[in-house]
Automatic annotation (TrEMBL), chains A, B:
Thiaminase-2/PQQC domain segment(s): 8-218
Lineage of source species: Bacteria, Pseudomonadati, Pseudomonadota, Alphaproteobacteria, Hyphomicrobiales
HAMAP family: PQQ_syn_PqqC (MF_00654)
Matches recorded under InterPro entries: Haem_Oase-like_multi-hlx (IPR016084), PqqC (IPR011845), PqqC-like (IPR039068), Thiaminase-2/PQQC (IPR004305)
SUPFAM superfamilies: Heme oxygenase-like
Keyword presence, Thylakoid: no
KW Oxidoreductase (keyword) present: yes
GO molecular function: pyrroloquinoline-quinone synthase activity
Gene3D superfamilies: Heme oxygenase-like
Designated name of the protein: Pyrroloquinoline-quinone synthase
Keyword entries, A-Z: Oxidoreductase, PQQ biosynthesis
Amino acid sequence: MQPDELEAALRDIGARRYHRLHPFHHLLHSGKCTKGQVQAWALNRYYYQAMIPIKDASLIARCEDSAIRREWRSRLVDHDGDMDGEGGIARWLKLTDGLGLDRDEVTSLKGLLPGTRFAVDAYVRFVREKTLLEAIASSLTELFSPVIISERMDGMLSNYDFVTRETLSYFDKRPPQAARDSDFALDYVKRHARTPDAQGLVLAALEFKCSVLWSMLDALHHAYVDPKHVPPGAFVPKDQ
Amino acid sequence: MQPDELEAALRDIGARRYHRLHPFHHLLHSGKCTKGQVQAWALNRYYYQAMIPIKDASLIARCEDSAIRREWRSRLVDHDGDMDGEGGIARWLKLTDGLGLDRDEVTSLKGLLPGTRFAVDAYVRFVREKTLLEAIASSLTELFSPVIISERMDGMLSNYDFVTRETLSYFDKRPPQAARDSDFALDYVKRHARTPDAQGLVLAALEFKCSVLWSMLDALHHAYVDPKHVPPGAFVPKDQ
């Protein structure tokens, strides 16, 4: 494939496999979730958010090129911020605060679904163990995140009276960051994946990452959408 | 031990084991090295410099505390800089340039001593595999670096006509960075190593790190100081 054909194939994976298509997101964005279900979503997704800088530092830790490390470092800044209370993780906790969840309960991870943990941990392990090309390619779901974020903002603000713009401040910041990051990653894989083997690895990495995000929502859907099957030890919403 | 006793024990390790005491440094700083020996030192030490951000990102990658990750991130900034040509690695390459080494030869690592590679790789592995406490403690050689750097600057500038202040710009920047970093790491180990077992691990981590630095100079001394024993494939100075 030529680089632009590879890009088209990557975008096609997004069109078919990105978690924007997941039934749970349809419920969430169209106002069909209970507050408890929104809480469960935010509490589980917190683990993903909390592990993102660990994933990104793992990528930097295997990268011998100072320029790529420097570029990737901006992701650490985005998520950890420059001081306490700043950055994506802190903004995610504003969301869980706004939804009425106890912050210590969220950060303790006690109510986390095992399916969320295993999916997120698989992502971190993928980035640590696969090639740098695959690790970078696995970040490419960010190509598709601006659309889902705008749907989520609009949908949640208009459909839930317990959600405010401030609660959702995490999502305000993400689209430009995601666009910058996915531009870099897309350019990298287009330049470095020039053989059929390498292009196959890149496509598989993006499919893998789509599966991570999809699997997290599957676990959530199975546990919290009727008929509910909350596994032992997992978060139980008060309105359930 | 009380925290201050632990600090005293750490400083005692530095007084006995830090590579400031290594015979090669006495030669280097007192003007007794040939230009070829100074080149060999800078070329080998380049690998240490190049791996430092990889070591630091490895530490960040295992750290669940956003505040510690944020603090440690400043080390990535110091070494990789904010743009091309900035940061500690780029400044180290100014040193190897100034010593007349070919930059591609330096960065290719082709002439590196195996002993340098193994010591540096052992350090990175230590930070990846030991506890976070030990990983942080292993950075504490920076407590002792301002003194050796000032001895090196003075000694090399007054003793070698092929060394200029600009060539040594790497060392200008390091003392305040090292002081900030070692203050943080020392405070961390004093607060977190409160049992005899934990304190033993902290002391052993610093001894380990002193051994890494010492071993690098042993390899250099054995290869390049009379009677020379340059191993197959390693850098051979033109003046040898």
